[in-house]
Amino acid sequence: MLVVKNITVKYKEKVAAKNINFEVKEGEIVGLIGADGAGKSSTLHAIAGVKGFEGEIEYNGYKYHSPKEAEKIKDRLSLMPQGLGLVLYDLLSVREHFDFFRGLRGIRKDPEYEKRLLKMAGLYEFQDRLAGNLSGGMRQKLSLILALLHRPQLLILDEPTTGVDPISRRELWDIVDNERKENGIIALISTAYMQEAALMDKIMLFDEGEIIAKGTNEELIQSIKDYTYEGEIECDECMSFAGKTYSLKDLNLKKTTPTLEGLFFVNALKKNRKMPKIKLEQKHTDTPETVVKAVGLTKKFGNFIADDHIDLELKKGEILGLLGANGAGKTTFMKMLLGLYPIDEGELYLLGEKINSYKDRIKLKSKIGYVSQRFALYDDLTIYENIKYFGKMHGLTSEEIEKKAEFFSNLLDFKDYLNFFPTDVPLGINQRFSVAVALLHDPVVLFLDEPTSGVDTIARASFWKFMRELKEKWQISILITTHYMSEAEYCDRVVVLKRGKKILDDTMSNIHKNYPGMSFEDVFIKLVGNNNED
Ligand SMILES: Nc1ncnc2c1ncn2[C@@H]1O[C@H](COP(=O)(O)OP(=O)(O)OP(=O)(O)O)[C@@H](O)[C@H]1O
Ligand SMILES: [Mg+2]
Asked: 62 FRET partner, CA 20 to 30 A, in 102, 259, 420, 480?
């Protein structure tokens, strides 16, 4: 049994979580949800004994009040911190990580269990690969199975499924579920995927450092059913996302069954928070009709083919979703488009020009914006300083930079964090300001590698409104990857990769015609199936 009694967690003067109370019984899985910066990580860190706190925590009768006192339960607990594979060593292989963590935890090898973990993570056949050469989601899954290696009784996972594909997310769930049934573990899991939270026994909604709602999925959904309508509309006192509209006032529209995502919107409406108004001025660009044309692009790493003869076209003003399970080859493909990896075979045309050399790219640099999957800006500059630095690099004046910082921080809602260092802010905030930096120089084409991973529901909703505006008003073309299958609905077209091969390339409207009555997530799972076996 875990009892958290009135704990408060502070960072210097800032209160990150206050008066947090809850109880978890053996075998229970509890989900923590809430906006970026709402206090989930701070609470988890206090329980895991890595962060000081006021108040008391009791685990199986043992009471602790500080990280020092928590030492006593460390061998029974496991914390997986937020971020893509933070606990990994780039120069150790998957197998070496297992050896290293076994040694660290002082445990013996259990080949059957390890095999199961590796299979679930889709890493069984990649045991010799260096962690530095794994895809983002593969890194995340390796961190996760390492956290499970010593079979902890108290499992604390901070957004373990950020960047993890929908199929692996289900497998992860099965493992945790099994551990709780067989071994009665307690799991505390924060997540930005509400479908996942819905599976948990109990869900706690954090907001501004407090738990403002607690209950089962059913109970929480009941609480918002009067405010949830079908379809998306524009209005002043409502919010829309993923095919639903939320409003406290009666809208005279058809009501629909809510999902947990709605909790965020209804709570925001109750607190009188507004989504930023996203309206851009119409702008004409003389971009060619085809912005990217890839013909048979291929990338090999030794004998391994990461991208196998991929054809892809991105049109002017089109939003193209590049989807696929972890390790399917999405990031590698983008890196070829950007010239970050040499192209082994195939032809590439960018903005109408055939790319043969580095020189061809230099000319186009100012027209392309890129957000990489791994945070790639400066950790030792504040968010504002980063914006300034990259703005200057693109030749913007101080006034222009000032204006853009103001515009983007309002639009993408990271204003409160401008003077923070990237290491001190939630993952979702870094993702958002990376998007702003990629847009500073007014590119006409954007390559966005999981810009919404780890970003909270409301911020994702505004992000997609913004993408639509960029497309419609500025005719910007966007190639984007995501593991939120519901976001595919915002794309005009999707390309699905499976183990380096293209298996689908069609418009969303055609896909819905061809798979009537199925959500895109179902279509995806049907097509990609078990990524580990053909
Ligand atoms: N430098 C490298 N050396 C060897 N293999 C690599 C290297 N870079 C990538 N790979 C492998 O290529 C495959 C595709 O990786 P990629 O990062 O493109 O996947 P992804 O589709 O972006 O996945 P994710 O959803 O996890 O981000 C993976 O198996 C990865 O381990
Ligand atoms: Mg990737």
From this structure: 102
Nearby residues of 477 by Cβ (< 8 Å), 6 or more positions away: 287, 291, 292, 314, 315, 316, 317, 318, 319, 320, 444, 445, 446, 471
Between the CA of 379 and the centroid of ligand 2 the distance, in Å, is 21
Ligand 1 site, CB within 6 A: 129, 133-138, 165, 301, 304, 306, 324, 326-332, 373
Nearby residues of 40 by Cβ (< 8 Å), 6 or more positions away: 32, 33, 34, 158, 190, 206
Residue 522: pLDDT above 60? Answer: yes
C-alpha of residue 337 to centroid of ligand 1, in Å:
15
Q: For residue 92, give both structure tokens.
A: 């150790």
- Residue 454 tokens, joined: 């780890």
Pairing of strands 202-207, 29-34: parallel
Enter the pTM of the model: 0.91
Chain-centroid distance of CA 361 in Å reads 30
Chain length of the chain: 534
- Domains annotated for the chain, with CATH where assigned, are 2-215 (3.40.50.300), 224-270 (no CATH), 290-372+379-528 (3.40.50.300)
For 460-479, write each residue's pLDDT tens digit: 888 898 999 999 999 999 99
The tally of CA atoms less than 13 A away on the side-chain side of residue 93 is: 9
Show Cβ contacts of residue 305 under 8 Å, excluding neighbours closer than 6 positions.
298, 299, 500
How far does residue 24's CA lie from ligand 1's centre (Å)?
38
Question: What's the rounded Cα separation, in Å, for the pair 34 and 40?
Answer: 7
Per-residue pLDDT at 534 exceeds 50 = no
CB 500 within 8 A of CB 308: yes
Atom 12, ligand 1: residue with shortest CA distance? 306
Torsion of CA 324, 330, 331, 336, to 10 degrees: 180
Strand partners, 301: 304
Do residues 329 and 352 lie in contact, with contact meaning Cβ atoms separated by under 8 Å? Answer: no
59-94, pLDDT tens digit by residue?
Answer: 999 999 999 999 999 989 999 988 766 789 999 999
Q: Which atom of ligand 1 is nearest to the CA of 135?
A: 17
Place of tokens 């999981």: 450
